[in-house]
């Protein structure tokens, strides 16, 4: 991977923003038991609160608002504005006095973060060569997976010492410092703002008329169900069913998320080198995506085996396989969409995919209320992941840029 100094700076800041992005969206899970006790929430209410973020996050993208912003205005400034909004929402969460206020701050967090992935795709497809996009996307993905890792480990320790509110206020308002280097080093390209350029940007309906776009969204829904299950419910599971202490939970949850991040970077590097040596992008990228999701179903026995050590080994293996998938999913999208459709396609795909963040927490909360155990919830997560593997392998056709025929 040979990048200029400017490209490395931009990539480092994108990775950092993804890292902060996922710390902000996952810290509610780390403090879930504390918040549940303070606000006297049942499983259904906790599931609604944990899924609130995804309502605005998904709808903003699915309805075209996030993609329109990214394609119509300067993408670097849109990312800066979204970052400011989601960081402020994170800090304000720590000041909430009622369940309603907590719910509202999570909705605002989702709205701010809704522009992140469309911005990442536009910047990557415009500013980075195709041969390096596997590893470029993998580094960004590693940032998003490392966020929950650090959030789980440090968050658990800080909550144990200072309480959950101090964690949200400090991280939320403190992360605004990221905006300083971003404004200095962000890409200086412009939006598609001339009539000719705007004419080359396909409409959301035009994108949705292509089978790969719909199947990429459905596949992402399945993979996100699995990922949100890990991010939202793994800390709660380790504390309530495995009876881990807050600090022990933080260590093992952090290890799980770091395993995904490390696997994503290694898999992204391998896939890029394979393609550079003549491998078919269709076979390589879809192979990593399908095989990774299929093997992630090894998570099912985690809830069934009694031996703690074996359960944690199986959990780490499931995370390793999930990293294989996540390293290539956005490279698939960027190849299919091309530079003029990358923002809207990514927004639509991410909008469909992130309804898993609404559906998943609600289903898991319902199953916990009904059974009192996590076994059925693990089973659903594994089944949905396997369905996603089939969608990526058989639902998405050859990986070549769509000819939009906008005349």
Descriptors:
407 residues; mainly alpha; Growth Hormone, Chain: A
Secondary-structure map:
Blueprint: H1 5-30, H2 32-39, H3 43-62, H4 65-72, H5 75-93, H6 99-113, H7 116-127, H8 133-162, H9 164-174, H10 179-185, H11 195-199, H12 204-208, H13 211-240, H14 246-276, H15 281-295, H16 308-326, H17 329-337, H18 342-353, H19 356-371, H20 375-395
Helix pairs in contact: 1-5, 1-8, 1-13, 3-6, 3-18, 3-19, 4-18, 5-6, 5-7, 5-9, 7-18, 8-9, 8-14, 13-14, 13-18, 13-19, 13-20, 14-15, 14-16, 15-16, 15-20
Q: Can you describe this structure in just a few lines?
A:
With 407 residues, the protein is mainly alpha-helical. 78% of the residues lie in helices and 0% in strands.
Structural commentary:
The chain has a single domain, classed as MFS general substrate transporter like domains (Growth Hormone, Chain: A, Up-down Bundle), CATH 1.20.1250.20. It is 78% helix and 0% strand. The chain has 20 helices and no strands. The chain has helices at residues 5-30, 32-39, 43-62, 65-72, 75-93, 99-113, 116-127, 133-162, 164-174, 179-185, 195-199, 204-208, 211-240, 246-276, 281-295, 308-326, 329-337, 342-353, 356-371, 375-395.
